[in-house]
Amino acid sequence: MTIEPRVLKGFTDHLPDKMLVRREMLSSLEQTFLLHGFVPIDTPALEYSEILLGKGSQETDKQLYRFEDNGGRDIALRFDLTVPFARFAAQHLHEIGTPFRRYHIAPVWRAEKPQRGRYREFIQCDFDIIGTTSKLADAEIIGMINASLSKLGVSHQIRINNRKLLAGVLDSLGISDRSQAVLRTVDKLEKLGQEIVIKELTTEVGLNSRNVDSLLRFIGLSNGQESVGAVISAIEDFGLNNEILAQGISELREVISYLDALGLVTQNGGPTPFCIDLGIARGLDYYTSTVFETTLTDLPEIGSICSGGRYDNLAEIYTKQALPGVGASIGIDRILGAFDVLGKIPPKQTSARALVVSSPIERRAQCIRAASILRSAGISTELSTQDTRLKQELKYANRKSIPFIIFPSEEEGLFNIKSMIDGTQKDNVRMENLAQELG
Amino acid sequence: MTIEPRVLKGFTDHLPDKMLVRREMLSSLEQTFLLHGFVPIDTPALEYSEILLGKGSQETDKQLYRFEDNGGRDIALRFDLTVPFARFAAQHLHEIGTPFRRYHIAPVWRAEKPQRGRYREFIQCDFDIIGTTSKLADAEIIGMINASLSKLGVSHQIRINNRKLLAGVLDSLGISDRSQAVLRTVDKLEKLGQEIVIKELTTEVGLNSRNVDSLLRFIGLSNGQESVGAVISAIEDFGLNNEILAQGISELREVISYLDALGLVTQNGGPTPFCIDLGIARGLDYYTSTVFETTLTDLPEIGSICSGGRYDNLAEIYTKQALPGVGASIGIDRILGAFDVLGKIPPKQTSARALVVSSPIERRAQCIRAASILRSAGISTELSTQDTRLKQELKYANRKSIPFIIFPSEEEGLFNIKSMIDGTQKDNVRMENLAQELG
Domain for residue A384, yes or no? Predict the structure, then answer.
């Protein structure tokens, strides 16, 4: 009797082809984070439900993997990295000090209805600077997003807004009491299109058509402008005036001046790395100032691959100390999906550049030494453990897309190198020269 | 009302100082694994309890974080990486092919009584070659352990045995019916000492004193020998003869000949990287041939930091296809603990080599540019987002052990570099030369 090997619905195994790509991507991101002086932290996957739920919604509650442990504690698996970070910051404030810049790459779990390409377990990648109200921190985060994505080689544009602009407009129009509903609806502009959003703003949110028109005309100011300066002039010329709006303009201007000083550039002559997009609202109430989303130039339809913004207080549920900050989250799975579509970093079955066969048996010790020498030279090498025919080994190398296969030549002590890419073969290479031949 | 920020009993947060060391260690290990042609996989943290328990013991059951999900499924968090790998191998055999060499670095959860330095959530790091009975695979695994630990810079010795040797001896003595109990007791030799083990073998396992004596004399054959060859001669001269013992000797000899060909060396003139230790039994019934443990030369008392062995069948619960293989597990937490004790890779608060201040405000754009230039040169740099006095910044750099602080000099456009290590200062450095000055 055997048990049928299977995974839970909504979960998936990660095979080497995908894992090698994911690993390379995460390692590249980490290098960029460290280069910017961000440090890693980790928190437990399991926490008290009370901690994770905080003032959470019923929606969050339903998504929790929540249960009682053997000690009768009400516990759950984390569903994001923001709540644990808030708890962490409150708990360790004295040890970590502020300002504090951290990143956290870890799995989270959500008992959602599984959808195409979305799993109940997935990796999140968050980074924040907390303990500062300085707008230079906003620019640091945006600059790091640009550096991270540039290093990954994806052409992108970071679309920046400031929540105070929309708040100011709503205030001027006398509809700030409905700002939450308005922002959530505006946030869907790109996804649903102008027509549907106008309908929702009118029927569901209950704005009159003059206000809807003003709002959408304001948002439209950032369309087709030549420069961020031109957008800001357009906002100033729009004719609405109030303190919140003015503050929003001033903050946006400051962030952009820092971004200019950072000298953001894109790879491969892509578009300017950042722009102002007055339609960026972000669904969460949490953000209070700068907000941003990031679009892949070659695949804008997959939506934002990195979003975030500035908040006034990270951890108010856990501590009385105000912790203002700014942060972002990179959508690892979306970028991996995009890599797939765009053919970047094609999946591979192995890291090995060379397969060294280990037969015939009487030449085995030499083969083992050859593999050792290649590895010492930093060349990823698989040493075959089998005593099989060369034909079998070629099949294996081919299947795993290992670019070179090395086997003893007829001359004692020498080796042949066959390229699995173009089929060419170099005969009678001395052991010491193998690494050099593989370049 | 705030919620008290706290973690569950037996769990811990990982602060940047420890995380930076752990990250470096795992990254070093992964590089070695990839160099040897091993590939990463990942499996879900949650699985059907039925899958995880398999033919598991009651002990395992008690340690499981097990619960019912919203769909009424009986699920649990994985407690090791071996069971999920067996399930994975059975499920994906056709896609992965054999021989298959994988590594898996991931957290596991055990609802054990928390002990000093042991947590209910910890990282495991496993690697295996499956689908081959070749003893060259055993040597590949042992060779990779040596390469991994050498790259980490820890002096170590891998102690190798073959289960068939002890099995042969027990057979010759006519006590192979009690082999499980004997092996488990012998496994405790190093921990409890000879005297207690003799007592246990006599009273609990029920061996007569002549057999206990023969057994311990046999195990003692590997003590104080000059070479592995001398140990093998001593075994052959011991006077016991049977087929299992002979097979054990032949297998051990073969593995060692491959290790010789691999040319294992230690760093810093440590002891020979491997030896035969006839006392290595390993508690698990699972192993059938080669077994090994690894001791830190400078800290043997913490026990084995990397153990494993050869098994006949990995996944018999999930598939009828026999999957022989050989694997090992590196004790990440033990090595990190040893690093702490031995003062290797001292913990640090940040990855940053330089802190660039961003005040006075009128020089801020220059400071930002300077940070950008340093990062482009690959120097990990924290750009202060604060507008504070230099004294405050020095305090911050000191607290975080950032080695250099860079601030605008009195000369427009130039910078001063202060070393936080020796207090020296270099004045009036041009922006373009900052990276070079930091070396």
Answer: yes
One domain, residues B260 and B217: yes
Bridge partners of B274, per DSSP, are B158
A residues 346-385 closer than 8 Å to B (CB) = 349-352, 355, 358, 364-366, 368-369, 371-372, 375, 378-383, 385
| Integer CA distances (angstroms), B51 to B41, B123, B224, B317, in order | 18, 21, 45, 9
ipTM: 0.94
Q: Kindly indicate the confidence band of residue A61, based on its pLDDT and cuts at 50, 70 and 90.
A: confident
Sign of CA dihedral B15, A45, A28, B24: positive
For residues B297 and B336, state if they share a domain.
Answer: no
- Domain holding A371, by residue range, is 354-438
CA–CA separation, B265 vs B279, rounded Å?
24
Are A396 and B97 an interchain contact pair (Cβ–Cβ within 8 Å)?
yes
Residue A342 has a pLDDT of 86
Please check whether residue B1 lies inside any domain of the structure: no
Task: Report residue B246 as tokens.
Answer: 């002979």
Tens-digit pLDDT profile for residues B281-324:
887 678 999 999 999 999 998 899 999 999 999 999 999 999 99
Inter-residue contact A80 to A51 (CB < 8 Å): no
Domain assignment present for residue B331? The answer is yes
R_g of chain A computed on alpha carbons: 27
Q: Any idea what the CATH number is for the domain that residue A399 is in?
A: 3.40.50.800
Instruction: Read off the pLDDT of residues B71-124 as tens digits, 9 standing for 90 and up.
Output: 999 999 999 999 999 999 999 999 999 999 999 999 999 998 877 778 999 999
> Per the structure, how many domains does chain B have?
3
Per-residue model confidence as pLDDT tens digits over B168-211: 999 999 999 998 899 889 888 888 889 999 999 999 999 999 99
Distance from CA of A140 to the nearest CA of B (A): 8
Q: What single letter denotes the amino acid at residue B22?
A: R
Question: Is residue A410 domain-resident?
Answer: yes
Rg (CA), chain B: 27
CB–CB of A143/A124 below 8 Å?
no
pLDDT at B400: 92
Question: Looking at the structure, do residues B159 and B305 belong to the same domain, yes or no?
Answer: yes
B376 and B282 within one domain: no
